[in-house]
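User: Second chain of the day. Same drill as before.
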Amino acid sequence: MWFKNLKIYKINMLDQSLDSLDEIFAKNSLRELGSHEIEVQGWIPPKKDTDSYVYKFREHLMICLAQEKKLLPATVINQYLNLRSEAYTDQKGQKPGRKLLKEMKEAVVGDLIPKAFSLLYKTYAWIDLVHGWLVIDTTNVTKADELVSFLRKSYPDFELSSLNTKTSGSVAMTEWVITEAPTFFTVDKDCELRGSDIEKSTIRYVRHSLDSKEIQNHIRTGKEVTKLALTWNDKLSFVLTENLQVKKIIPLDILKENAESDEDIFDSDFAIMTGELSQLIADLVGVLDGVAE
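Assistant: Same format as last time:
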């Protein structure tokens, strides 16, 4: 499987041996959701039909955090709450107060939780032991924070910080649109510009030539590029954001090994993906003048 998005963290310290990581994750694995629980989270094997909570290829690891969550829409809660409120009004001759309504709502939720359906959500992450990266496949900041928080809870020796480079993503991308992209990168046809005014006025271009006078004028009047579509080494296209998130990754003509089974496909994809993406991240950090201390 290929990651489509990269939320990148720098691993600052890792005291313990990673040999114990699978055992540690097993102790924090996903358990069965109780009938009166709304949600539960824990680690699951990232590869199907295996018992290992850490998939390893050379110096690269894949992990997966799962969250099972019951669906309890507010509209359903309010529907049952209104019925109880109306019954109380009919019986007492007055509407329930704020405190009683809160108690009624808690009772409604307690009654509905055991009957609610649940969904399983998965968030995958890749650990690059060579370069010291934790990379999460998500565009959702909350999902990334949940995985990092649960990882720290499971493995306190994992010290992380969000990727921060000496040259900011916005400054660099603006320069690339004005002049040209650095070695290994080409500018594509999508970008977002945002003003420095109070309103933070934003303009988006999709499938549009980015060397037009119109865009150059926007930049001259103070707007900066906050998202930019790029291609790396003629192998991967993606969108880079001002926060150094890599989104919408599409592999381009990357040779895949012949694979007959789902297991072989998983192994092959992970081997190729980690090789290409680790180099992409290294090149990206390089053109942004390295990691800021």
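The chain is about 35% helix and 30% strand.

User: Great, on to the next one.
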